Amino acid sequence: MFKKAIELKSHQRLSGADRKKLKRTVKDRFPAASDSDIDSLLPPKAEITVAKFQNRVHVYSVEAAFPVFFDIDGRGNEIFPTVYALWKVPDLMPSFLLKGGEVSRYVIGGADLMFPGISVPAEGLPSFSAGEPWAVKVPGNPAPIAVSYFLKFNAFELPKLESVEGHYVPNAGFLEDVVFEDPASSSCQTSDSRDDATDSSHNQPSETNGKEVEDSVGAAEEHPILDSASVSQIEGKNDTAEGITSGVADLKVTDTTTADEMVVEDQQPLSIEDVDMLLDKCLLQALHTTVKDKDLPMPGSTLWSNHVLPCRPSGVTLDIKKSSHKKLSKWLLAKSSTGLITAKEDKHKKEAVLFAVNRGHPDYSSFKPEKRKIEKSEQTTEHSQGESRSDNKMLEVAEIYKPSVHVNPIFTAVGAGTGMLYSASDAIAVVYKYIENENLVKLTNKSIVVLDAILCDALFKGAIKKGSTYPTEIHKKDLGSTFINRMQAHHIVTRGGESVVRKGGLKTIQIVTERRQGNKKVTKLSGMETFLIDADALASELQKKFACSTSVAELPGKKGHEVLVQGGVIDDLAKHLIERYGIPKRYIEVLDKTKK
Questions:
Q1: Region labeled Disordered — which residues (predicted)?
Q2: CA 593 to CA 596: how far, in whole Å?
Q3: What is the pLDDT of residue 127?
Q4: Which helix (H) or strand (E) holds 174?
Q5: Cα separations (Å) of 344 from 266, 323, 360, 477, 480?
Q6: Spatial contact of 550 and 540, defined as CB atoms under 8 Å apart
Q7: How far is 531 from 581, CA to CA, in rounded Å?
Q8: If DSSP states are collapsed to H, E and C, what string results for 473-519?
Q9: What's the DSSP call for residue 51?
Q10: CATH number, span 507-592
Q11: Which whole number is the average pLDDT over 287-293?
Q12: What tens digit of pLDDT does each residue of 160-219 get?
C-alpha cells in the first residue's frame, strides 16, 4: 500500500463524533475484537488524528505518531490494522503462516502473495470469504509481518487452492511500509533468540532447513508464490529486507508496553495550573523554533495546530479547554496583555490573530528551547522543494520598519540607531527596553504601561484630534502595533544573492480573469516585479506551461508590466507562482470577474 512515499493532502484531529464512528467501524470490521482490544488501540483519552493522502488512503494515528489503522478507499469499507496495531493486539484478525523464510524477505518489502506460498495446516484453514483481512506471520514468531486479504475464491475451493495458480493475496501493509519509517512508531523489541517468542501456540519447532528452502523455491517456479511484478519492484530493497528478515524471528511484543502508557493515560490528570504552564512552554518553544516574523500575521488556529501542538512533549495530550483560559483566543489575548506577543481578535472571523512576537521580552529571552530532531520526511520534502525551485532560487520576503521623527527619541534614549531598518519584533523590543529603563510598568497592573511625555508623543502626537485628551497609559497588547504604525514601513525581497529594499508595504501580485469578445476568457497578471520576477521570462514560461498565447504590456500610468494569458487559468497560475517561485499565498490576490 505504501511502498513509495506519497503526498499528504491533509492532517487533522478527529472530533468526538468521528472517533465514535471509527470505533464502530473497527468493531464491525473485526467482530472478534473485544472492547478492551479496541480501547488499547484507540485509547478514549488520547488524541486521534487522520492523515489523508492523494491516493484516497486515510491513516489513523494515536497522538499523531502511532499509526493504528488505514482505510484503503477512504470510506470505511476497507479498513485494516497496521502491523504496529497487530503487534499490540495479535488476535485482532485471523492469521496464516508462510511456508518458509525465503518468502518472507519479499513480503516484508511489500510483495504480494500467491496462495501456494501459504502453509495450510492438516486440519485446514477456517472458512473465509473474498476480501476478508488476514495477518501474515512467519513460522516460530507471533509478530505479524504484513496485513493482507483474499482477493477471490470461496471456501469450497480450499482443497484445490494449493495446486491452483493465479489466486491472488494482495499485501495491504507490511514491515517496510513508509508509514513505519519513523523509528518512534515501533514499540517492538528484539530478542537474542527465537525461543523468546511469547505466544505458546507458535513454539512449534521450525523445520525450515536448506532442503526445504530449495523445495519452496522450486515450487515457486512451478506454482508462483509471489506476484512477479511485486518482486521486481522490491528487488532494490533486498539488502534491507534480508537484514529485517533475519531479525523478524527475533521480534517480540512486550507485554508491559500498552497504549495507555504511550499516552500517559494511567498518570494523574494534569491540573489547570500544569496545563497553563505546559501551554506557555509550548508557545515559547514554538516562538523560538518555528514561528518566523516573515510568516506574520498568523491566524490563531494556524499557530495552534502547526506550531504549538507539535511542541508538546511526546505522549501528552494538550487541550486548551482544560486550561484556565478555556478558549484559544482568550489565551492568546492573555499572552498579548503580558507583552510577549501582539495579538488581536478578528471580529469578522471571531478568531485571534498573531501580529508580532516581542523577542526582547524577558520570558522569551530567559527561555531555553529544546533541540529536536528533524524528521527525515521533512528533510526530504524540503530538499525536493528546493530542487523544484532551483532554477528560480529561494525567495525570502520580510517586512521591515525605519524609525520616523515620531519614534526617534525612543530609539535615541536606548542607544539604538535611527537610520537603521528593524523587523517588527526588534522594533517592539526597543520600546520595551525604554519602558524597562524608565520603569513605566504600572505597579498595580503589570499589563498596563504608564505613558511619560516622550512615549506619549511617540505614540500619539499628531494622531489625536484637536480638543481630545492625550491618554496617560496604554495596555501592553496595544503597545506593539501602535508603535509599529508610527514607523516608516519598508520591505526587503531576496532571491538568491539579489536583495532589494523598497519603501512602503509589500504590494501583492494581482491575478484577474475576465471575459473578452463574448465567451473568451483572459487572465491578467501584474505586480510580479515586486518579487524579482522578470515579466518577459514569465510570459514565455507560461506560454509553454499552459500551451496558450501570452503577451506583455506596460501598465498605464504605473511602473511595471502586465502579463496577459489567453484562457481562464487563474487558479493554476496562482499555484504555479507558489510552487515554482515560492511566493507566499498571502501575497497573491485573485479576482475572477467571469463569475456572476
A1: 185-217, 364-393
A2: 8
A3: 65
A4: strand 171-174
A5: 38, 20, 20, 8, 11
A6: yes
A7: 9
A8: EEEHHHHHHHHHHCCEEEEEEEECCEEEEEECCCCCEEEEEEEECCC
A9: E
A10: 3.30.780.10
A11: 86
A12: 444 334 344 444 444 444 444 443 333 343 333 333 333 433 444 334 333 333 443 343
Dihedral sign from CA coordinates of 132, 137, 138, 144: positive
Do 87-252 and 399-491 show the same overall fold?
Answer: no
Domain boundaries, given as residue ranges, for the chain = 8-83, 87-252, 272-366, 399-491, 507-592
DSSP-based three-state secondary structure for 25: helix
Mean pLDDT of the region 116-127: 67
CB contact at 8 A, 2 and 179? yes
Listed residue (27, 45, 15, 34) closest to 261, CA to CA: 45
Note the pLDDT of residue 228: 41
Residue 5 DSSP one-character state: -
Q: Which residue has the cell 517561485?
A: 581
Tell me the C-alpha distance between 36 and 21, whole Å. Answer: 17
Q: Once rounded to an integer, what is the mean pLDDT over residues 417-429?
A: 89
- If you ran DSSP here, which 8-state letter would residue 575 be given? H
Lateral strand order in the sheet of 118-119: 118-119, 95-98, 133-137, 146-149, 171-174
Question: Tell me, what's the pLDDT at 150?
Answer: 57
Phi, psi of 440 (to 5 degrees): -95, 0
Euclidean distance between CA atoms 61 and 249, whole angstroms: 26
CA dist., res. 16 & res. 48, Å (int): 10
Q: Return phi, psi of residue 204, to 5°.
A: -70, 145
- Identify the residue whose cell numbers are 511526546: 314
Position 101 scores a pLDDT of 60
Residues in the chain: 596
Closest by CA to 287, choosing from 202, 398, 365, is 365
pTM: 0.37
pLDDT digits (tens, 9 = 90+) for 478-525: 999 999 999 999 988 888 777 888 888 888 999 999 988 777 889 999
Mean pLDDT over the full length of the chain: 73
DSSP lists the bridge partners of residue 66 as 62
* Separation between Cα atoms, residue 583 and residue 510, nearest integer Å: 13
Q: According to CATH, what is the number of the domain 399-491?
A: 1.10.245.10
Q: Quick one: what percent of the chain has pLDDT higher than 90?
A: 15
Q: Take residue 350 and report the three cell numbers written for it.
A: 471571531
Strands 133-137 and 146-149 come out as: antiparallel
Cα–Cα distance list, 227 to 132, 152, 205, 230, 349 (Å) = 19, 15, 29, 5, 54
87-252 CATH: 2.30.130.10
| Cα–Cα distance for residue pair 579/545, rounded to 1 Å | 14
Characterize the bridge pairing of strands 341-346 and 561-566: unpaired
Q: How far apart are the first and last CA of the chain?
A: 44
Q: Quickly state the pLDDT bin for 220 (edges 50, 70, 90).
A: very low
Q: Mark 279-310 as b/e (b = at least 16 C-beta within 10 Å).
A: bbbbbbbbbbeebeeeebebebebbbebbbbe
Pair 298, 286: CB distance under 8 Å: no
User: Was domain 8-83 assigned CATH 3.10.400.20?
Assistant: yes
Tell me the three cell numbers of residue 159: 482443497
